[in-house]
Amino acid sequence: MNKPKSSKRADAVDLQIGKRVLQRRNALGLSQSQLAQQLGISFQLVHNIESGKTRVSATRLQRLSLILRAPIEYFLEEVANPVGPHDTLAPSEIELSGVASGAEGFELSKAFMRISDLTARRELILLVESIVEAQVKVGG
After folding, report:
1. What are 85-138's pLDDT values in tens digits?
2. Which of these, 51, 59, 73, 79, has the minimum number of CB atoms within 10 Å of its CB?
3. Taking every pair of C-alpha atoms in the chain, what is the biggest distance, in angstroms?
4. CATH number of the structural domain spanning residue 59
5. Percentage of residues in the chain with pLDDT exceeding 70?
């Protein structure tokens, strides 16, 4: 009886995870070597993960999630739901995921992550929330 061969080749999921690891690593200002050190692997392996050449185990994905401070769903967002990437998200989450994956969202995230003062970060969040609230009140 022939056993089905398990594919060790990277596929669309591996490419998506790699793309998201690269985006998040850059947003946090980490080098491949720094990420590799935190994961306990070589920087070449990080490169292979980011390029989709190496599959990521569930354990490593969990570690990436912790180190890169992003939920596991972030890495699987565009491939997790075969019906559509946003079918189960609320409208505000769809809008947020679109902004977060765009150039402006990336730049904003990168700048925000460079703010080391946690009080300043919180004040910035409160400022943005107050701007949004003011826009909603005036119908903008």
Report:
1. 444 545 555 455 555 556 677 777 778 888 888 888 888 888 888 888 888 887
2. 59
3. 71
4. 1.10.260.40
5. 74
Q: CB atoms < 10 A from the CB of 4, how many?
A: 5
Q: Minimal CA–CA distance to 24: which of 110, 117, 121?
A: 110
Separation CA 100–CA 84 (nearest Å):
18
Burial 58-69 (b: 16+ CB within 10 A, else e): eebbebbbebbe
**CA–CA distance, 115 with 119 (Å, rounded to integer):** 10
* pTM as predicted: 0.55
Q: Which domain holds residue 135?
A: 102-140
Distance between CA atoms of residues 90 and 52, nearest Å = 29
In the chain, the number of structural domains is: 2
- Which residue type, as a one-letter code, is found at position 140? G
Say yes or no: 76 and 22 in one domain: yes
Type of residue found at 132: V
Q: How far apart are CA 21 and CA 133, in angstroms?
A: 33
Retrieve residue 80's tokens: 């997790």
